[in-house]
Amino acid sequence: MTINRNLNKYFEIIGLLYSSTHPEGLAKEVWDKAAAEHGINGDELYQKAGATYKKYLTAFQKNMTAENLEDFDFFFSDEADDFILFLQTVCAEHTEWFEGDPGGITEDAVVLAFANRLTADDAESFAAPPSTDELIQLLQAVGFSSEICWKLMLIMQSPKKKLENLTAIVVNSIPAYEKAVTAIRKPLDKLLANFPSGEYISSAMKEDAVLTPVMIFPTGELIDTNETTSNAYIGLFVADVYQMMKKPQNFRGNLLPVLKALSDGSKFDILLSLMTSPKYNLELAEELNLTAATVSHHMSVLLTYQLVNVEKRDGRVYYTLSKDTLRDLLSKLHSIFSI
After folding, report:
1. Which CATH architecture has domain 247-336?
2. Beta bridge partners of 308
């Protein structure tokens, strides 16, 4: 397993640009809601992670100057969270787009980078740029919303122009990012020195997994796999969330979010599907008519409550039903409502 000890600059900048146009993430109510989903204390979570995140994002917002650059709204102003996560993972693996001469990057290279990321869970990847018909079929199979499909098609149709505009926005934002990092330097250095610590979903991934710390999503986990590598982006406060969940006073609080997760139709359908056999992300997305990003979001919750497990084989991350957790859940319910 490879562990990065630094933030991925481009993953962070793209996330910061998006979050800066959606500042509702700074509200205390958002942290209270996130805490409630995990059955932990909102004030404790905010005190632990919220203040640092707020200082980070606020410093970036104060110094950013990218809003008027071409295509800024195209990339960052819509409510398309799945699109931003997709963009982050692609760009994080292609730092040469932002550090070299963008004029030396071919259109084919850009199209292949995006197309092969769309086929991340498939056994085969594209060796040459797919045709328009192949792209349409690919996007339909992945299950993104029509808005995201439209954005990706526009990128594929003018890959070099879109990349040049994105590069200009990102590079222009580097000074603001550096000031944001400086604003939280002391706690960030401590977090990075201890990364990874405690529990995290990707601890089940071994061998070729690459773990990267994340500040822009401080309590989130994103697993991004393809046929050759497994990249996990781990929020620097994820371990704290797990630790809070284990506190004795959170027993009832922990039980309620698990029941809430089971009450969600999509999550319940995922568990029912995994009863028949282990499956990887795209299999579940196709079977349940969900986007791959939506399945990843549901999996993050199910993994947090240990309702599912992960195992790596044949170049893919497979999800399996955690029967021990379900038995334990039933036992706790029986002990509370014994009649």
Report:
1. Orthogonal Bundle (1.10)
2. 321
Could you give the residue range(s) of every CATH 1.10.10.10 domain in the chain? 247-336
Pair 15, 213: CB distance under 8 Å: no
| Percentage of residues of the chain with pLDDT beyond 70 | 86
Give, in order, the Cα–Cα distances in Å from 339 to each of 154, 326, 332, 335, 336. Answer: 61, 20, 13, 9, 9
Is the separation of the CB atoms in 66 and 175 below 8 Å? no
Identity of the highest mean pLDDT range in 176-190, 230-244, 286-300, 307-321: 176-190
Those residues with Cβ within 8 angstroms of residue 245's Cβ, 6 or more apart along the chain or in another chain: 38, 39, 40, 254, 304
Beta-bridge partners for 310: 319
The count of residues in the chain is 339
Count of C-beta atoms within a 10 Å radius of residue 306: 16
Nearby residues of 299 by Cβ (< 8 Å), 6 or more positions away: 223, 270, 281, 308, 319
For residues 69 and 67, give the distance between their C-alpha atoms in angstroms, rounded to a whole number.
6
Whole-prediction pTM: 0.76
Q: Which residues contact 88 (CB under 8 A, 6 or more apart)?
A: 10, 11, 14, 15, 233
Count other Cβ atoms within 10 Å, centred on residue 326: 16
Q: Is pLDDT at 253 greater than 60 in this prediction?
A: no
Rg (Cα) of the chain, in Å, rounded? 20
